[in-house]
Design brief:
TM_effector, globular, cell membrane, MFS_dom, Growth Hormone, Chain: A, mainly alpha, MFS family permease
Amino acid sequence: MRKEQAADTFRAFRNRNYTLFFAGQSVSQIGTWMQRTAVIWVIYSLTHSAAMIGFTVFAQQFPSFLLSLAGGVVADRYSRYRILLITQTASMLQAVLLAVLVLSGHHVIWEILSLSAILGVINAFDVPARQPMVHEMVDNKEDLANAISLNSAMVNLARLVGPALSGIVLQQFGAGICFIINALSFLAVITSLLLMHFAPFSPPAIKKKITAELAEGLRYLKQTRSITILIFLLACLSLLILPYDTMIPVFAKTIFEGNAATYGYLTGAIGLGALGGTFFLASAKRGADLRKFLLGSIVVLGIGLILFSRIAYFPVALPFAIIIGIGSITPMAASITVIQTEAAIHMRGRVMSYVAMAYFGMMPMGSLLIGSISQKIGAQLTMFCQGILAILIALLFGKLLYKKPIKETTDYSSIN
């Protein structure tokens, strides 16, 4: 029975392209989290400002907000496979430039922020292409929800390993080595893409103006209430709750009186919880109500934030960091699974661009907001308030998601 459950949990690996993608992304994501951890630590070490950490996140993610809709149109018009090859190569070059800059010893804050903004531009085209491409990698569509969940689990495994490794490397060798490791990690995902086999790409017969395609995507969202509510939920979480991570360096260095390794272990503990949450999601039975997973995980996140904010002793804080991790990534994983499963095939790129816009648009503004508030009232009180807000958001959107919908008569297959 246990063997059958394990086979069911990892059933998406029956698809060759997906297995290659999973293996390559696993290595690359570890490097990405190492770089992200190192950038935030370098900025905080230079400025000792939570607000500046928020501005760093803003610099990286706001360009993605500005360009994500265009990225969605590009993902629906052109080969997502070729788009990924381009974006992953560009991300590798960005990591190389960051490594050269830091290792030269002449880096200043504005240069790091500029390279972070360049990565945000790359991600604006990478995310809308990469997320829907999972559909093309999975031959048996019954494995799709499992593949999306395993993809989230892989990201969270990297979120566990990457920061912990980064903390050690930062202490022993410095941030530049973290950036070099990230640059090398992109070779794994690029190699996995080159080994994949796809049917020849067939471009859309009729290409419309970008503005027309964007308007078409917006009309589609207006006609699919359930997807729209999920996108608004992600926007609220990204603005008010998920930017809690801008305060983790403050807890590590100021409240727990630690160093880069302390920060790495805290972020790794959050990653461990997130990994457990997504494996739990991946093990969900076919036909399970993922919206209940979504709402439950937001409540868990709220409880974790409240409890973590009250602790001033590092070893005791680690279990609560794990609880935060369980609740922090599962809402995104569950929402993306539901959205990609329910969205029309020809609309997935644009729908995912709106999802990316909700995340990349609200997250940078939320990071600025939370960073500024924590500078005034302290990181502990700010995080406590975020925990209360998370529980209130779960209650509000629980009513909206399970409100009896008005009967819809629109034939979505006619939208083209």
